[in-house]
Every structure is written in C-alpha cells, then in structure tokens.
Amino acid sequence: MRQRDSERLRNASGTTAPASSWFMAVLAVTVSLTVGLAVGHFFVRGAGIESGTHREIALWSIAAFLPALLVLSIWVRATEGRSLLGLCFGGEHRVRKAVLGTVTAAVFFLVLNTVAGILAGDGPDGDAGDGATVSLAMGALLLLGVAVQSSTEEVLFRGYLLPVLRHRWGTAAGVLGSSALFGCAHMFNKGASASYVFMTFLIGVALALWATADGNIWRTCAFHTTWNFIPSLFTPDGQTSDDTAAGQTVAAVIVLIAVILCALWNVRRARPAHRASDGAAAPEADVLP
Q: Which residues is 16 bridged to in the sheet?
C-alpha cells in the first residue's frame, strides 16, 4: 500500500479507519439499516403502539437502531477483528466536543425558528408558543430514543462509511458521498419530500465535515441528537415534525448552509492543530485541501 493510502486510513484522532472496500461498506450499512428498520416495524406493530405518538417515536427508534448498530458491530468484528465503537469514539476532549455539538445545535435551531417566523410573517418567535406539553418521563424516554437513533446514524454514516469513502476517493468525495447516501436513507421516512431529503443531505455535509475535523463523532452525535430532539419534543402527538411549509424550507436551507460554513471553518481551523501534533503529511488526508 502506498504511503499516502496508509495515511488516509488513519483518523485525526490516530485511530485507524475501517479497512473495508467502499462497496462492502455501503452494503454493510444498507443491510444493517434494513434489518434494524424491519425489527422496529414488527416491534411497533406487535406491541400495538399508537402511530405518531411520542411513545411510538421513542420505542421505535430504540427497537430499530440498536439492532442496526449490533449488525454493523458484528460485521466489523468479523471482517476486521476490531470494535466498531472503538473506530468512532477515540480522540481527546470528548466532553468538550459533545457540549459544543449540543450548544451549536440549540443555537442554530433557535436561529432557524426565528428566520422561519420572519419569513412566515409571524415575527421572530414563529410558532414557538404552540408547542406540545410532554411529561418528564415521556421527555426522558423520547430523548433516549432520539439519542439512540441519531448516534447510530452517526456511527453508520460518519464513523464507519465516511472514512472508507474518504480513503477511496478523497475527503471531498467522501463527505459528499456519505451525505448523499445519508439523504437517500431518509427517502423512505413517512411523508418524506424532495426538499426534506435535500435538507437531510445538507445536514449530513455539516456533520461529515465536523467528523473530519475532529477525527471522531462525539460532536456530531451530540449535534444530531439535539437537532432531532427539540422538534420531536415540541411536535404534538399524531403530527410529524417533517411537515414544512415553503417558507420554512427556505429558512432551513439558509440556516443549514450557515451550519455547513461553521463546520467548514472548524475543518480549516483543525488543519494547523493536526500539523502540530502529527506532522504535516498525515493530516492532509483528513482535512479538505
């Protein structure tokens, strides 16, 4: 293997990236999600849980995504003899990155709500006052479910798939390719529209850039969880948080582009830190040129 190829296999945190071929990596993620979603579907149907409720969202997320994580973990252990989670959660300053991810998501979501309210003519607060009331216990269960779903998606797409695609085609193609597959995976969500899939692609780009900058997915797991939890918490039972008007779509695209620019700034900022700690050669494979 050429020296540059061996360097690309190493994350910014120093953890060696997955060694699977890009095709097998995509297949492994696809099979893992398919198995998980099937388990979640049959669990919800068998339990007779009312559709569209916070309880269904939470329990379905746990029932669907834990099996998906288990399947991919078994695959990585069988093919590479390593821990999947060990590939994704290395590095330093883990708590700081998780806090940054949480705060960043909350701030940008507030900005999104403000911009959407202005574009809709409702003022800077938008529809913030129409949120649902959720009990503490249900809120905790919903947070657990969203955290399992969001973190599993991060492991699959940013922790496992992104490094493989980056190794094969370079960072830019890896970021765009993993984000495109991330968007396609959401095409089958109930009520998913073309604009929803496109916005999912955009958020995937930002998350992939942060994973590239950090060399792990602590920040992306926290951001993804917070970004999904807030609208789920304030969406009334029986209504999906994916129902967006044209003005909200425009606002979301504007804000998501700002999120991408923020993540890109973190990638650029990470370059000198990588050079100082690891030398000038290896980090070049981990950051955008």
A: 10
